[in-house]
Amino acid sequence: MAVAVEQLAERVAQALRGWVSEVQVRHGELTLVVKPADLLPVMQELRDNEALRFEQLIDIAGVDYAAYGQDEWITEQASSTGFSRGVDGFTTGRLGLTGIYGVHEIKSNTGRRFAAVYHLLSVALNQRVRIRAFCDDDNVPLLDSMVPIWACADWFEREAFDLFGIIFNGHPDLRRILTDYGFVGHPFRKDFPLIGNVEVRYDEERRRVVYEPVSIEPRVLVPRVIREDNRYAEPASREDRGDA
Fold this sequence. Notes:
CATH class of the largest domain: Alpha Beta
CATH superfamily of the largest domain: NADH:ubiquinone oxidoreductase Nqo5 subunit
Low-confidence stretches: 84-88, 90-104
Number of strands: 9
CATH architecture of the largest domain: 2-Layer Sandwich
Strand order of the largest sheet: 1-2-5-4-3
Distance between the termini: 53 Å
Radius of gyration: 24 Å
């Protein structure tokens, strides 16, 4: 598999003629990083080149790289059963604009915050490739739409727009697809509160759905952690206990 991926990387680098800014081969998978300005011609070449023939777009995933690689789930003191409020949250998603993102302005610790990741499949040649394109502007993340090349990109791009706020230039109908019509913000961004901003309920007196400020307390849930210690050790056999 690794040899095949290396060969594919060579063919892709030769076909794309310097459009690719970074080539990564990890875990037997090929990832290409391209600039936003080169994204559309790169995708066109990947689909139409006879040596590549990536005729199918499987998925488009938005990514927020703010505070990439940092984690607040300190599990050494977590509960041994279920979930618990085991640690105090420090990210903007929990307790406001403080902590690792700064007080007022949210910044990426990688220098590039938003990206779209494209997964392509060549059915004819039985090969796969991943394309990652970082947006130039964190405040207005913008990429070209892939709908002219793959029609199925329509809903994928609407999802990335809805959840991450990535704008796809040239999309025929860029609007929300998962959240409500009046939803404010993009819920998969790392600065979006986990408790949300508003809650919805049906008001019997008004006889309609009403939106109100969220009433639940922000908290951090720590997952159950399985540790290698005597709590999970197998019971000693009779021979080990000296009962035989």
